[in-house]
Amino acid sequence: MSTEPLPASSPFLHVHKFGGSSLADAGRIASAARIAAGSPGAHRVVVVSAMQGVTDALVALATAARAGDDTTPAWTALAERHRATALALAGADPAPLCDRLALESEALRGDLEALARATGDAVVRLSERIWGHGELCSAWLMQAALGGEAAGWTRLDTREVLVVRAADMGAQVDRDASLHRLRAWRTRHASTHIVATGFVARTTDGEATTLGRNGSDHSAALLADLFDAASVTIWTDVDGVLSADPRLVPDAVCLPALSYAEACELAYFGAKVLHPRTLAPLQARGIPLAIRNTLAPARPGTRIDARGEAAASPVKGLSIVDGMAVLELVGSGMTGVPGVAETLFAALHDAGVSVTMISQGSSEHSICCVVREVDAGRGRAAIDAAFAEAIAAGQVEGVRMQDGLCVLAAVGDGMVGVHGVAARLFDGLAQARVNIRAIAQGASERNISVAIAQAHATRALRAAHAAFWLSPQTVSVGVIGPGHVGRALLEQLAEVIPRLRAEAGVDLRLRGLASSRWMRLGDAPMDPASAAAQLDGDGAVPCDLDAFAAHVRASHLPHAMIVDCSASDAVAERYAGWLAAGIHVVTPNKQAGSGDWTRYAAIMAARRAGGSRFLYEATVGAGLPVVLTLRTLLDTGDTLHGIDGMLSGTLAWLFNRYDGREPFSALVREARALGYTEPDPRDDLSGLDVARKLVILAREAGRPLSLADVEVESLVPDALRSVDVDTFLARLDLLDAPMQARLDAARAAGCGLRHIAKLDSEGRATVGVQALPADHACMHTRLTDNLVQFTTARYAENPLVVQGPGAGPEVTAAGVFGDVLTIAQALGAGPRRSP
Ligand SMILES: Nc1ncnc2c1ncn2[C@@H]1O[C@H](COP(=O)(O)OP(=O)(O)O)[C@@H](O)[C@H]1O
Ligand SMILES: N[C@@H](CC(=O)OP(=O)(O)O)C(=O)O
């Protein structure tokens, strides 16, 4: 660290400002001190705010004192908070620091007592002193954390040097007087580095004052100018200036660079991270500003300078100013009359009402301006008075007032000369069903502002944010059932999501994962690669499907989808509700498609009502395009005559292998060992699973078939139907003799055996073993191949055949993923769900 005395002004000097969030407790102050001490540059000026919450407490104390309330408990708590922080920071010898803070606390107590009795100007003077107490204390704390005078850090009470006078536009610095006082201060303090109190200043009369709430940013900029600093860094608790307030828009992104003008507009329109008056002194001197995160100091943050930087979106940031009202002067007599606007704004000026936004239609029939709600009544009275004569003469109707509004501003240098920006903003707001009360765009085209109902503020901000920062194909995804298929799907998602985002604009965000017992929900997208492994770890909560769906249907993301990879009927029971709520559903779970007809019909109706999609390609033939092929045939006007084929990979494998050389039971055991069968092979041999698939296909073709309507031949002997699995496996050879007899009979007729599902032209559905001639397509399959033949009007002589491996987690997951993509890719063109 340099020990050269600090020059009166230096281009090698860097200003660092730490806000209250960075000084919330002793640990944070120590981190801030490490950042300041370790930052580059020969000389540093560290500007501190009060510890988090302290200014609020002081404002409340002053109010209580004026009201004659007992301030002792709150005063004691505040003094104790500073003392406890000092003890934690000061190490072996905390007494000097504690004494300093005790003196400050005593001064505060004196001011509070005086304020309780004060009258006239003294009320303002004492209040200002009280409000600034927090910065005086935190500067002592920070100086100690940095090692004090011994380490070259001198404390500057900014009230000694920063001279401001009250002006129309807020406190105005007297630069010459301030420079003069700073030089004088420098002659008395030969320090290398400085810790300066933010927020506080002195009036031209030498009284203590403040720069207004959140004014420490402004202090840092003013000191940077006075010290001729090379840069200013504002350290806070977020990564930089974000595209919107992260408390309202969870998907807000950190903006790498902004121009002074962009930052100024955003700050003026409510981006709390930066005080609006900070930019002017820096811009005037060309001093660059960085906003960085004390909690993550390695991150680059936001750079603000004259250059700014072009970005992908023409709009850099969105912000909201709450508590606004519209005043509208209306009257046909105003048209073409010069001076109306002048009279109106002069009236507002005289009443001390500041105008945030102005809009006037070209008919000049009305002039509308947006002011702060608290000023609106005063503003209206002032305009009414100014136009009293015109109102009496009937030329002007009077002033209409509407409160309960806020102003949403979209800001960006990139908007200049670019068409479609306003359209995108208004479209986003329209999608969210937000009514726009007034619109203004300055001729700089750097800001479009709209006045909207306060009640719609968050919804509007999220919708506008989605319109500019999210792809229309951004989908909030929740996956249920991390079994074999679910896990394979998560692996595939992990591999493909980055490419989909970069190349196709499809932005799939895994925000929830649930098993039958646990669920994990994330606001930030979860990593699909590790999500399943972490499911029952820290942060997991017991599964609640309502909460899961509510989270997935995030109001700040344009679309939501639940992928059900469970085999649960209870989950299928939820589909109708989810679809009606606009959540798309994708599943390989056969329960809904083949279960109770009334529920199936309700699901299909909910899908239509919610404008959402329900896809289940992987319920039949795993990753093979079976449902899609049938759908396409029907959608293009073909007529289905029949479906037949092998719909079970397990049974296909068994009959492919079964040639009489090995008993059927041995093959069942082998298939089980290879993982081809369900743990209880009766689930396959019963034919029920195949029957479910046939029902799904029949319903797809518009036939109201139910499971009970399918004639299913079970391969499980009656005697083994209700025994436990072990007994069943032990007595499996009961299958052998009857199966051998069927094989012999088939062979005698020149045929072989296959397990076939069939839906005929009359709608009759059957599932069972059939003897097929050697030239039948099903006799030419391999391993676990499924084969589905569609006989239709167009494919009458020679059916359309879909064939390929029809089982296994990877191919099934790929079928599910295909549905997810089908939905996501179509979203770009379709309407967005309203947030
Ligand atoms: N556009 C925005 N970008 C970043 N932060 C914002 C924005 N709008 C509002 N904020 C809020 O501003 C906060 C930082 O301001 P503030 O609380 O005054 O910080 P500090 O205490 O460090 O001075 C952030 O925690 C964030 O919640
Ligand atoms: N402490 C003052 C000044 C300030 O700027 O604080 P912060 O940097 O924490 O916003 C306030 O709360 O208004």
UniProtKB/TrEMBL annotation:
Regions that span the bilayer: none
PROSITE patterns: ACT, ASPARTOKINASE, HOMOSER_DHGENASE
EC number(s) stated in the UniProt entry for this protein: 2.7.2.4, 1.1.1.3
Cofactor(s) required, per the database record: a metal cation
GO BP: any one term: methionine biosynthetic process
Domain of life per record: Bacteria
Keyword Transport in record: no
Gene Ontology molecular-function annotations: aspartate kinase activity; ATP binding; homoserine dehydrogenase activity; metal ion binding; NADP binding
CDD domains: ACT_AKi-HSDH-ThrA-like_1 (cd04921), ACT_AKi-HSDH-ThrA_2 (cd04922)
Domain ACT: 329-401
Catalytic activity: L-homoserine + NADP(+) = L-aspartate 4-semialdehyde + NADPH + H(+); L-homoserine + NAD(+) = L-aspartate 4-semialdehyde + NADH + H(+); L-aspartate + ATP = 4-phospho-L-aspartate + ADP
Subunit (UniProt): Homotetramer.
Role description: Bifunctional aspartate kinase and homoserine dehydrogenase that catalyzes the first and the third steps toward the synthesis of lysine, methionine and threonine from aspartate.
Family per record: In the N-terminal section; belongs to the aspartokinase family. In the C-terminal section; belongs to the homoserine dehydrogenase family.
Name this protein carries in UniProt: Bifunctional aspartokinase/homoserine dehydrogenase
Organism encoding this protein: Luteimonas deserti
Gene this chain is encoded by: thrA
